[in-house]
Amino acid sequence: MTPITGPVDAHSLVPGASAPAVPRELWLSDLKELAQAQTSWLWRGYLASGNVTVLTSQWKSGKTTLLSVLLARMKTGGALAGLPLAAGKAAIVSEEGPASWVARGKHLDLADHVCWFCRPFPGKPTPAQWLALLDRLADVHARHGLSLVAIDPLSAFFPGRGESNAELMLEFLMPLHRLTALGLSVLLLHHPGKGEAGEGMAARGSGALCAFVDVLVEMKWHARPSEDDRRRRLLALSRHDETPRQLVLELSADGTDYLGHGSFLDEEFSQNWKLLSSILASAPKKLTRHQIARRWPPGSEAPSGITLWRWLERAVAQALLLREGTGRKNDPYRYWLPGHEERLSRPPWQDEMDQLIERISRVGAAAEGAEAEGGPG
How many angstroms separate the CA atoms of 268 and 303, rounded? Predict the structure, then answer.
């Protein structure tokens, strides 16, 4: 046998074998150039070119409604829930039949900028059928210039029944790179697992799905599902700084748009500011946090001390309230509405009088309690 000397190419040892295509290395300048070329937002923070987004939500909670409104708004672009949305074309792979989409189109502008693959398979696709579908989507993009491909829902088109198998999940997901490599944004609509799950863990099946995608979005009811509340909460984990961590959105009355209400805390504050400001508007003096809490209307659920403090801090930061004091026990913060200073001017002895009245009230309440416990003599 002739000894082998020098560098060995493994493929040279197999007659007729050809070397596989191996990508070249990338340096920092290459990465920057690619990143600049690929970071293009379709819906800022949630859908980006060359990225995969998964939207997980309970069935019948509004995933397809959100997708439908987004599709309609893509005709001209503009904004959705207060976030910029680019114009573009989309292809939808849907488990629903044509009639459902025609019904949505009666009040949404679903025109020729959208195409559908409605129930493209008689059952769940085989791996070969799944790959053929992705090839067809790439062909549609080549002919029409798509911006978005949406799969609604993922479970209907996942080959086989192994959603919890990480290897099978990756075999299903990896070919999506055929689309993202073309600059497409891919949106997967998905169902949650059973029971409560931690943040970022709602998606049903293998964790390989959550690890694979670039943007992970979980949509939940804002109130109880039984209530007629058009608001939803979006919680997102992402590779991108532009993705809002939280967003409350509300479907408009005519079902054609979504309004954005900011983060969960923004929404909480806006819902309670009217009541908080009315308490201060009717107050005869500047109020401490504890005094505000004691004036909370009996018919409304009073916030905890920490929550009320958070609302007051936000109101001061937004110049909705004014504040004085050091925040210490003997000099607590006092709050009032701008423009009410003259009405709330206090004589120097008023604070001492208020403290005396409060002590008398506490002593009286304690005495009544003791008398009630002792019963009749």
Answer: 11
